[in-house]
Design goal:
Elements lengths: L1 E6 L13 E2 L6 E3 L9 H15 L3 E6 L3 E6 L7 E5 H15 L2 H18 L4 E7 L2 E8 L1 H10 L5 E6 L7 E8 L5 E9 L4 H8 L2 H7 L9 H11 L5 H16 L3 H14 L1 H10 L21 H9 L8 H17 L1
Antiparallel strand pairs: 1-6, 2-3, 4-5, 5-6, 7-8, 8-11, 9-10, 10-11
């Protein structure tokens, strides 16, 4: 289903177009854009509800079925409305086939493409796995990126995934480092089909997978994600108390000395027994508190780098799989040249 029309009153006119877009952190809808796609009408309606909650307005349905959804602002004086339809999505799919070729054919080309990478870029890693005739996953790490990471980046990788917007969905996983100028440096990426159990584990969470695949490498949590988890798990504390508790939890996260750490933990206990219980039993302290962390974080407490990666490959997410891989390769070449 594709968003294909939206109108806005003068006092609500956005700087660009109104857009529904999943964030890189928790897939919450933060904006809406004409042309965005959704698997079906239910996903589109969920996105609208999230958007309405975030922007504090109500809407009513004018048309609501499996192929077409039209809504308008509930306020009588407001002209805001938006329409999405399966017909628009089908038209866009036909146009994509003309421009980029069939998505089915693109998957068939992937094995050939991976073999060509190994021939033309010796030392690279290109692995395609299928389940019979069905695509399972693919992994690419170009030799130049691996060498660049080893010689010019801190031994620190940021990992995250973003949903693909093509006909068959899937998830694009990325591993990104930081270079000597504090800029992002992309090392490797994978594309997975979410429908298999193993791939589903990757897409649902990295905690257990990282421990299994990288058993000797400490896994650090992003504080922004941790904050979101804390706020969600402690709704009954109320907004004001949660904010006070998070301020103390931030002190715990950045504490490097034992006394500083212990004092902050005691402050949290005195402020909220529930928040203290969450800290000790559910937060996995060793993955985010500097004093407890078993490795080196080099002061990196947030995973902003992966947000840059998601924005970097944003346009490629709409392409058939082989076109997408080649688009990313081309962007990597540009990154290495600069």
């Amino acid at each position: 289903m594709s968003l294909n029309r939206g109108t806005f009153p003068p006092h609500q006119q956005p700087s660009g177009v109104l857009a529904i877009r999943p964030s890189s952190e928790d897939h919450e809808i933060v904006s809406i854009e004409v042309g965005d796609q959704f698997p079906d009408s239910e996903h589109f309606k969920d996105a609208l509800r999230n958007f309405a909650i975030k922007h504090n307005f109500n809407f009513t349905f004018i048309k609501n079925d499996k192929k077409r959804v039209t809504v308008k602002c509930a306020a009588e004086s407001c002209e805001w409305c938006v329409h999405a339809s399966m017909e628009a999505w089908l038209g866009k799919e036909v146009a994509k086939d003309v421009l980029h070729g069939s998505e089915v054919a693109s998957y068939d080309l992937l094995m050939w493409y991976a073999k060509k990478v190994l021939v033309t870029n010796p030392g690279s890693v290109a692995i395609v796995e299928n389940d019979g005739s069905r695509f399972k996953r693919v992994f690419f790490a170009f030799k130049a990126c691996v060498i660049g990471f080893k010689t010019g980046c801190r031994p620190l990788l940021y990992q995250d995934g973003t949903h693909l917007l093509g006909k068959y969905g899937g998830t694009l996983l990325g591993a990104t480092g930081k270079d000597g100028n504090d800029g992002f440096f992309h090392v490797a990426f994978a594309i997975i089909n979410n429908e298999t159990d193993v791939n589903g584990t990757w897409s649902k969470g990295l905690i257990n997978v990282v421990a299994k695949v990288f058993p000797s490498s400490p896994h650090a949590y992003c504080l922004r994600h941790l904050e979101a988890n804390f706020m969600k798990a402690n709704v009954r504390l109320g907004k004001s108390l949660k904010e006070r508790c998070w301020s103390i939890l931030s002190r715990i996260a950045f504490s490097c000395a034992e006394k500083e750490f212990d004092d902050a933990v005691v402050d949290l206990l005195n402020t909220s027994a529930d928040a203290h219980q969450w800290l000790m039993q559910k937060s996995d302290l060793t993955h985010w508190a500097n004093y407890m962390f078993k490795g080196d974080r080099w002061g990196e407490m947030y995973s902003n780098v992966v947000e840059s990666f998601n924005a970097w490959i944003k346009e490629a997410r709409h392409l058939p799989v082989t076109n997408m891989v080649d688009s990313i390769r081309f962007k990597l070449m540009g990154m290495l040249c600069h």
